[in-house]
Design brief:
CATH class of the domain at 58-231 in chain A: Mainly Alpha
Oligomer: heterodimer
Radius of gyration of chain A: 24 Å
CATH topology of the domain at 58-231 in chain A: MetI-like fold
Distance between the termini of chain A: 17 Å
Mean pLDDT of chain B: 84
CATH class of the largest domain in chain B: Mainly Alpha
Number of strands of chain A: 0
CATH topology of the largest domain in chain B: MetI-like fold
Helix content of chain B: over 70%
Low-confidence stretches of chain A: 264-269
Mean pLDDT of chain A: 86
Number of helices of chain A: 11
Amino acid sequence: MQFSAGSRSALRAVAGLVMAAVYLPLLLVILNSFNATTSGSFPITDFTTRWWTAAWNNEGAREAIATSVRVAAAATLISLVLGTLVAFALSRYSFFGKSTVNLLVVLPIALPGIVTGVALSNTFKTVLDPLGIGLGMFSIIVGHATFCIVMVFNNVQARLPRMNRNLEEAAMDMGATSWQTFWQVTFPGFRSALVAGGLLAFALSFDEIVVTTFTAPPGTETLPIWIFNNMARPNQAPVVNVIAAVLILVSMIPVYLSQRLTGDDRRGD
Amino acid sequence: MNRQAVITPPSVRSAASDGPAARRSGALSRWLYSRPRVRLGALLVLPLAWLGVLYIGSLLLLFATAFWRVDTFTSKVQPAFTLDNFVRLATEPAYQATALRTIGISLAVTLLCAAVALPLGLYMAKVASRRVRTLLAIGIALPLWAGYLVKVYSWRISFTTGGPLDWLLRPFGLDAPGYGTGALVVTLAYLWFPFMAVPVYSALRQIPENLFEASSDLGGRSWATVRHVALPLLKPALIAGSIFTFSLSLGDYIAAQFVGGKTQVIGTVIASNINLNPPLAAAFSMVPLAVVVLYLLAARRSGALKHF
């Protein structure tokens, strides 16, 4: 299809504007982390690295990062096990209620986070608290694992039908037990899908805030909760800004490089 | 030779070796192999306990809690059956306005995302060179990794008074709107834009070039072709994208807190009542739940979900 020259430049302008709108705010966060004044006025006149030092020495931020890593690791571990189990059940067996189980796995991510958060918080308060399981690290991990399962499930379920099941049959014909066949033949076949799903689950958990606000006890802060609590405090805002800048750089540069290296869009041509 | 090495690594071959432990696990393995129902049960018991009992149980309990009440003296939640919470939501103008406002904001976010995704997708699929297209495809998806709060924060500093947007608009004699509903819509659209842009772009690329050529051979100008040929074919992608932009906006209240100014959304009301009046919070969280379910059902009726 041929667009007229005018239409082409109009479309090009839209694309340029979109990219500017996507990246300028992020660039602004990085720039602002060197802003000497805290009022947020623009353009920036005085630059300083003071906030970076302050952020590095900030105990609260460090503790929050440690908590986030612990929660994400535990939630990822649980979702690796549960997601793989469901993926095997759904892709290798046919049974009554299969589509319901499928829906069940997707539901926690399809429903608004606030519904999941309120529902779990309500259960912990009214049912589990009297049994001695109150809000704590455990409840945060439970909440996160619930919506992380789908990440592992999606990746493993997409891989399993493409694997050669004859290899498993062959291993068992040669006398391997189900256990040995699984670990030495089946598992290596979907290991990379499991790693990809696990990474997504970890990233999702590390970034989560809504479910966490409802399932975290007072005083326990994951990194997003810490950012949330400190963003509006004038004294802490510059430190939050540095953490935000670090998160942008740490999360986006590796993904950009890997995308460039694999050339994501090339296969489509 | 090589092939055999793949199928039977040495450790597997040793499975046949005799030893009491090996024999026992072999027996269990044979027993399981002949009973697929038992294996299926073993696979499903843990996930179903987690998702079926804990998660669905929590949702049902939340539903039940919406009919409970708070004792006015002890301020403890009491099991009961009362419709008071729902009546309050339906009759108090503030709550009605909040629910309608949130749905309106979610629709505005969805429309804004679609209105931007369409020309961007057209440019990428039909005008841009391959190199630019690859860069743009990465460029759209990349911010998904940047962190939710980081992106909210980036718009918070953009909209701040005397901040970058003010500075940008001042030469035109305009003032940036500051925190408020407008800022909220822009921020939410920014957050969920990739969920709309990616399906729209990939659907545009899948439309055969023949269709565009046929349209222009028959005298269709390029924009008429876009409207009458491309747009109907994009409907499934637009609907699929809108599910994300709509339902994510509906449940969000963090962005409202930081860029919304005084704008209250459903989430704000739920969050502020979760400790004071859990039954009311439970009742109000049925609103986004019901709206999302209705939206999903409507999307399924339109047949758009089959493609994604």
